[in-house]
Amino acid sequence: MTSRAYIRDGAEIYRRSFSIIRAEADLSGFSGTAERVVVRMIHACGMTDLPKDVELSPDFADAAEAALKRGAPILCDAKMVANGITRTRLPAENDVICTLDDQRVPDLARQHGNTRSAAALELWRERLDGALVVVGNAPTALFHLLDMLDAGAPKPAAVIGIPVGFIGAAESKEALAQDRRVPYLVVHGRRGGSAMAAAAVNALANPVE
Amino acid sequence: MTSRAYIRDGAEIYRRSFSIIRAEADLSGFSGTAERVVVRMIHACGMTDLPKDVELSPDFADAAEAALKRGAPILCDAKMVANGITRTRLPAENDVICTLDDQRVPDLARQHGNTRSAAALELWRERLDGALVVVGNAPTALFHLLDMLDAGAPKPAAVIGIPVGFIGAAESKEALAQDRRVPYLVVHGRRGGSAMAAAAVNALANPVE
């Protein structure tokens, strides 16, 4: 019925994709869960040179996996991140939360003199303790998280900090990596984004590739 | 109240980001709406070398802008694409449609022997005529769109074809660019994704940066 020749089997597409990634990418700096996370992030962006910019703290993979297994909520800075997380992969029907559209956010943003993305984190406070935080879009959200921790906010179990862009992205990820209060995963430089961030969560949530 | 120095004004962040992009990226191959689209795609991915892989048909920008202005629906292959489209930028409260979660899709996928992403396009048929199609995730969706056109499906006004990845992504975008039946925008190679695809729509929808 169709004339074009292409692979139509989703599982086979995944298998071949992951095989190409492992053949081409230099994954020597990563093992176990961390390797799986980096492979899936590469899968999400199509770039096998990503590993050179990826940095995880030694405790990140265990902390993030354990948090998900015990049912920690996943706090996302952007709806695209939340939407990219495959619910059926989550080990404990974890809540996936994005507060950006909460009606209190515009007022909070004015009050804090910050972006809506940063202000939305103020509504995370009661879920922050032991949570998995995922920043896949806004550098201001990642900076504000660090400011909240400075001010005594509860500590998340781990932070995926992969905002993308030209203003503050590289600096906010550098700040997270140097902070050392929480286990972290970053992609240094300008690259990042919601797809990579969601991919990292999907890899942490479930070993199935 | 906070100790870190970073830009907290969203409008200023946009201004400076777009200014850096225009200073660094080689945009000589693009003008008018097309230039605006490419700049916003770069903004979404953080990579100023993107233009070398971007190809638009000469009729793409006008066709896509006109379609949006006359209220054409925006048909998206992935929820992340749909979610990345800023509704307030749309000129005619255009419907943003993603049929991937429709309960008929798993059966259609079995029936067509294809991925769910491709099968979901079968549910676009009655909205396809004159629509803006946005494929930001699945190469199989873009291939299947071309197969549907071969089989006589109504023609969309324009197609944004930016699937990402290692299996079929480059080939499906090449096939769209060589097809010539519909105005197109592609990013050649493996790069692409929902953020870039949504950014292209957001630029086409509204000239405000």
From TrEMBL, chains A, B:
- What keywords appear on the UniProt entry? Cobalamin biosynthesis, Isomerase
The protein's annotated pathway: Cofactor biosynthesis; adenosylcobalamin biosynthesis
* Keyword Isomerase attached: yes
InterPro entries assigned: Cbl_synth_CobH/CbiC, CobH/CbiC_sf
Q: Its family?
A: Belongs to the CobH/CbiC family.
Which NCBIfam families does this one have?
A: PRK08285.1 (NF006136)
This protein is called what?
A: Precorrin-8X methylmutase
Can you name the source organism?
A: Microvirga terrae
